[in-house]
Amino acid sequence: MDEKHDLTATQLEHSTSIQQHGTLKADLVEARAKEYIAVEHSLSLWQAIQSCPMAIFWCLMVSMCVIMEGYDTILIGNFYAYPQFAAKYGQFIDENGRHQLSAAWQAGLGNSSGVGCFFGVMLNGYLVNIFGQKRVLLGALMVLSCTIFMTFLAPNIIVLMVGEFLCGLPWGVFASSAPAYASEVLPMALRVYLTSYTNMCFIIGQLIAAGVLAGLVNRPDEWAYRIPFALQWMWPAFLIPILFYAPESPWHLVRTGKIAEAERSLERLYRKGAVGVNVKATLADIIHTNELEEELTSGTSYLDCFRGVERRRTEIACVAFAGQVLSGSSFAYNSTYFFQQVGLSTDTTYKLNTGGTAMALVGTLVNWFALMPYFGRRNIYIVGMFTMSMILFIIGILNVWTDRESIGMAQAVLTLAWTFCFQLSAGQLGWSLPAEVGSTRLRQKTVCLARNAYYICSVISGVLQPYFMNPGQWNLKGYTGFVWGSTAFLVFLWAVFRLPETKGRTYEELDWLFAKRTPTRKFKKAQVDIFDREERQKLEYGLKNTAPA
């Protein structure tokens, strides 16, 4: 291509629209965007890995922030059956002479961090648009370093609950920033792996917590639960100096008009000379997608996520993420309290818990190598949700014969099978789908809304679950499987009719499919021509005339 017609980042940065540079330059941006899309569709997984090793590295580092939330999620939930913790913070002693937290305090303590995460996520949607992913993440890590002191030194359960709430604020930032960052710095072939790697980090945190709990359960003093809290400090100490050098998301820089900085960020993320790497073409596609969305969408506020075609994208993101809770995770995933209530010993309970978390890690790897490369997101999610609902119904049916010693162990094994199935499906895709399905200008807010849909469901289930299981309340034991089996089946039905296939689609193509109001089952094979200007003008006109006032 003639160099005198080249479109530089510096030239673009001095205008608000590509069209201000003339038709020739607009055509050049479009041509380079076409080049980028063609490469994206032809790039193999191995070529994608070779093209952007540094982008992969920075995604891994950012996602590691989520380890802390995964660590604490299993920590608090499993402390209820922890003898030393229950002795310190419990309210009564049961008929077996064991200290217990009341159902009300289990609900309050277990949900305090979730409430904090809710507000942290909402705040993150605003902060990232102003400061970018990098600065917000560094600030959240510094805040967390301070709030951990409250949980570590808590003299009573009230202070502990407040500390958990304050820790939840930065955890919410991590959970909503990690998948969004990965989706913005990686090629399409790697998108689902590194957005779902956030879930892997969640599991790693849970596995570390399970191992720590199993190793300290027989310790007779208060350090049995203080040491697990103290270990949370190692993550900010490790991540702050590393993330200080992380590149900012090029999509954020383009949205804020910093085109030259976006080009430099891309040069740091991609390997020069690798197959499929053309920084100018990638930058042109980001600019082209941003301009397309400016034409097809009305703004970048939370309210815009519920307007026009964005409403459908927000619904898909929210239900897909909330499906992690509605599939029964509060019952079958953090199951040590359930194991205790069905008569298993404390030692067996924590060994099974560690094994279950290890199975979750294995399920994640199986999904990466045996499912995601060959099957679409839609099919994996649907089959997984149906299978989990059936497992939960079987657990409920088995509870009829609780007088037999083997039944408790059979129910425990089924929860492990559920955990494996969860990580083959909703456990991974609950993170990936919100990062893929939202428009790029509203991606951060779409991920934030989806994560908060998860937190809302998590808080509700966190309030109900102790009452389902607590021997002083409803004491349903395995019958709880009927409750969560029903919600999982409802999500399965939703997915059949509402969850589209996003595998193999660039962000521009997804914008087009949603703007055209493509039926769910036609997403996979629908033909897309995002560069047909006449069709684009018709579509833009139609959207403006059907958008709400």
Automatic annotation (TrEMBL):
Family: Belongs to the major facilitator superfamily. Sugar transporter (TC 2.A.1.1) family.
Organism from which the protein derives: Coniochaeta ligniaria NRRL 30616
CC per GO annotation: membrane
GO molecular function: carbohydrate:proton symporter activity
Domain Major facilitator superfamily (MFS) profile: 58-503
Keyword Transmembrane helix among UniProt keywords: yes
Protein name: Maltose permease MAL31
Main location: membrane
Transmembrane parts of this sequence: 55-83, 103-124, 136-162, 168-190, 197-217, 223-246, 316-335, 355-375, 380-401, 407-431, 452-469, 481-497
Membrane-topology annotation of the record: Multi-pass membrane protein
The keyword Acetylation is assigned to this record: no
Annotated keywords: Membrane, Transmembrane, Transmembrane helix, Transport
